[in-house]
């Protein structure tokens, strides 16, 4: 098994074993691409949402929140383009009957060529040592140049086929590149077909087209249709933003990779309403702001990169993804899109209502442009979980599994552990729990040896363990153990709130 595949399997089984993520309705053998967040998972997820909300709403004077309904008037999705254009190009392998996204097959082929370039670079680095200049090598080496040209040709052909809906060309490209099915190994492909990703249902008891509604495939439209309500009632001036966290639903065909691609997932989206013509300035601003937000978590700067879109969505004039180095490679974590005035203009047309902003300075009515940042909560969860899970070799030769989560995101901030289950130690420990739980999410645990309890807390990422022993009864001091260094220190009970507070405060992430 490849090392990264093995690492990914460990993340999935750790998530289940330690109460983070369970397959949905598992007693019925689960439902594909649907997951439930368990006792520790829901805390981690809530903390991720809190970190995002704080950065967007609490710390931005000009951004406010919203919680729109999942069901929206069906015209919304006609206006947004989702009924006609929210499709994925699908292709089936005739031998395995496996279905793939045609563009993903091609992107994976490109990634293989990039892998070959990286191999050439690694080899040359070894050969030339300190004298090696990567930039020069990339610009002059024959093999690298040939491969870069190959990538560029494929991207151009794919871009043209996707942007112009030339599905035959997409199929031909897959055939020409000799792409094989990972299951059957054959090149026996069907034609490429478009598949709409929205889930439909019916409103009320009457069936038929008139009552057809959709589960929203993105939260953004709830923001667009409310933009003028918020602007007027909040007396907002452009530029201003509306932020929202909520569920979205997509009937993904190739739903796999655990919580990376699900059919029911959660998004954190922010639409920033700006003056037309200023979109590139704001595009750069939000790129920089969002990457800073990610890097502040300390999961490793090298694990992030931008990937500009070749195929622009039907509403965008510029778009980039923040990609993260998941256990299965670099993949999209967040999208930043310059959506122009597409959505607001469409809603004006379909609703017959003016959605204009009156600029008090120029005395003009305008349709604002929109800059959007959109991130999946579940993908963020997977990013944090996978990079935090570590197996450490200790000095005494033993091993420990530790989830070195950023402390402000940890599900439980401190565990209070009486050394023994008698002689008044549990009562003292519960007293400490009462004191701490007003400020932080803490837990009490008395089962098993203290060593075993430390290991269990390490595995769920608890930054501090607090041991209560016989001396505590006399001197009101406890032993506090740090998850990462495993160092233990004797401190006064009265100092615990502030010691823990300093470590787990969200404000640490904004310095
Ligand atoms: N409003 C724009 C929009 O929805 P998107 O790139 O389709 O853009 C934004 O989605 C983010 O939502 C993605 O970057 C990803 O993090 C998350 N996302 C999209 N589809 C998902 C799925 N099936 N499962 C989990 N997360 C998903």
Task: Compose a concise summary of this entry.
The protein has 511 residues and is α+β, with helices and mostly antiparallel strands. The chain is built from 16 helices and 23 strands.
Key phrases:
511 residues, Herpes Virus-1, 7-stranded mixed sheet, 3 domains, binds glycyl-adenosine-5'-phosphate, alpha+beta, Rossmann fold, 5-stranded mixed sheet
Structural commentary:
The chain has 511 residues and is of the alpha+beta class. It has 3 domains: 1-69 and 218-386, Bira Bifunctional Protein, Domain 2 (BirA Bifunctional Protein, domain 2), CATH 3.30.930; 87-196, 2-Layer Sandwich (Herpes Virus-1); 394-510, Anticodon-binding domain (Rossmann fold), CATH 3.40.50.800. The chain has helices spanning 3-17, 39-58, 75-80, 82-85, 102-128, 134-140, 142-163, 167-176, 220-233, 279-295, 342-351, 377-388, 425-437, 450-460, 470-475, 496-504; strands at 21-23, 35-37, 63-66, 87-92, 99-101, 193-196, 200-202, 212-214, 240-249, 264-274, 304-308, 318-326, 329-340, 357-359, 364-366, 369-376, 389-393, 399-403, 414-418, 442-444, 464-468, 477-482, 488-492. Strands 3-9-10-16-13-12-11 form a 7-stranded mixed β-sheet, sandwiched between helices. A 5-stranded mixed β-sheet has the order 20-19-21-22-23, with helices on both faces. A hairpin with a 5-residue loop joins strand 17 (389-393) and strand 18 (399-403). It is globular. The model has no long low-confidence stretch (mean pLDDT 94). Bound molecules: glycyl-adenosine-5'-phosphate. The site of glycyl-adenosine-5'-phosphate has 19 residues, from strand 10, strand 13, strand 16 and helix 12.
């Amino acid at each position: 098994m490849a090392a990264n595949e093995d690492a990914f399997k460990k993340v999935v089984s750790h998530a289940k074993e330690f109460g983070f993520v369970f397959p949905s309705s598992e007693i019925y053998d689960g439902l594909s691409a649907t997951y439930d967040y368990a006792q520790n998972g829901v805390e981690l997820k809530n903390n991720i949402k809190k970190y995002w909300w704080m950065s967007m709403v609490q710390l931005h004077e000009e951004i406010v929140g919203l919680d729109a309904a999942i069901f929206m008037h069906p015209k919304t999705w006609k206006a947004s383009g989702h009924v006609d254009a929210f499709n994925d190009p699908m292709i089936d392998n005739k031998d395995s009957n496996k279905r793939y996204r045609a563009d993903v097959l091609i992107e994976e082929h490109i990634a293989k060529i990039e892998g070959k370039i990286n191999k050439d670079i690694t080899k040359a680095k070894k050969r030339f040592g300190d004298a090696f200049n990567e930039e020069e090598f990339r610009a002059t080496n024959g093999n690298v140049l040939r491969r870069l040209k190959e990538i560029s040709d494929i991207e151009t052909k794919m871009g043209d086929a996707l942007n112009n809906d030339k599905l035959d060309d997409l199929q031909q490209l897959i055939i020409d590149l000799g792409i094989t099915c990972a299951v059957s190994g054959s090149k026996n492909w069907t034609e490429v077909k478009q598949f709409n990703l929205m889930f439909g249902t019916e409103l009320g008891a009457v069936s038929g087209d008139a009552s057809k509604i959709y589960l929203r495939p993105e939260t953004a439209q709830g923001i667009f249709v409310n933009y003028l309500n918020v602007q007027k009632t909040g007396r907002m001036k452009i530029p201003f933003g509306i932020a929202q966290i909520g569920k979205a639903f997509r009937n993904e065909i190739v739903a796999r990779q655990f919580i990376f691609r699900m059919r029911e997932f959660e998004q954190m989206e922010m639409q920033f309403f700006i003056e037309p013509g200023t979109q590139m300035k704001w595009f750069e601003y939000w790129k920089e702001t969002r990457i800073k937000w990610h890097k502040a978590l300390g999961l490793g700067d090298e694990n992030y990169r931008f990937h500009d879109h070749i195929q622009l969505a039907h509403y965008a004039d510029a778009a980039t993804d923040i990609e993260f180095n998941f256990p299965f490679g670099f993949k999209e974590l967040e999208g930043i899109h310059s959506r122009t005035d597409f959505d607001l203009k469409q809603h004006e047309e379909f609703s017959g209502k003016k959605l204009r902003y009156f600029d008090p300075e120029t005395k003009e009515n305008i349709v604002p442009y929109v800059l959007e940042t959109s991130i999946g909560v579940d993908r963020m969860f997977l990013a944090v979980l996978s990079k935090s899970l570590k197996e450490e070799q200790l000095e005494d030769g033993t091993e420990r599994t530790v989830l070195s989560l950023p402390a402000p995101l940890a599900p439980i901030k401190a565990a209070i552990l009486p050394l023994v289950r008698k002689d008044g130690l549990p009562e003292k420990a519960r007293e400490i729990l009462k004191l701490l739980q007003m400020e932080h999410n803490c837990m009490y645990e008395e089962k098993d040896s203290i060593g075993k309890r430390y290991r269990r807390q390490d595995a769920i990422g608890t930054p501090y363990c607090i041991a209560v022993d016989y001396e505590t009864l006399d001197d009101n001091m406890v032993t506090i153990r740090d998850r990462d260094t495993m160092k233990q220190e004797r401190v006064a009970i009265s100092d615990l709130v502030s010691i823990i507070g300093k470590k787990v405060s969200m404000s640490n992430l904004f310095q």
